């Protein structure tokens, strides 16, 4: 009995709580969420602070991408970040600092955000965003995925050594990532508590 009541909670992410009374309306809801997540990421990318000596600025982009993935779940999160990336490659100037295209050295971070959104979304569906400690772990893992793609891409595209890529594309951002994780640790579990769908209760 306990397993039957605990299991449903792990199958829900925050976006699933947006009502949809039919399959057709669920598709419309999902499309709106995917578009909204892409727009949120694009807006957050404009909160940008250059880092001296590095082609990768500090932005709100990564935080938005991880938040979108966690709230929407793996499938919708990946679709949302995929839409964000595709629109930017097509010329929409909503990458960091109003840029677009795929030739900049920081494009690997965008690819990493797509993968990270799916990872954190899958973890959220298993209850990874229900408590402060779980959320911290999810955010740290998501950030690690972004760097695992972004730093090697930076090294390749900018002709840097591995050490140089780490110095320019990872170390300057660790403090900011910690602050973003702390913000998520407060926001996501609080949202579940507000909605009375914490990690120990059945969703429904």
UniProtKB/TrEMBL annotation:
It comes from the Bacteria. It is found in: Cell membrane. Keywords: Cell membrane, Membrane, Transmembrane, Transmembrane helix, Transport. Coiled coil: none annotated. InterPro entries: BioY. The chain crosses the membrane at residues 81-96, 102-124, 136-158, 178-195. It is a multi-pass membrane protein. Its main location: membrane. Belongs to the BioY family. PANTHER family: BIOTIN TRANSPORTER BIOY. This is Biotin transporter.
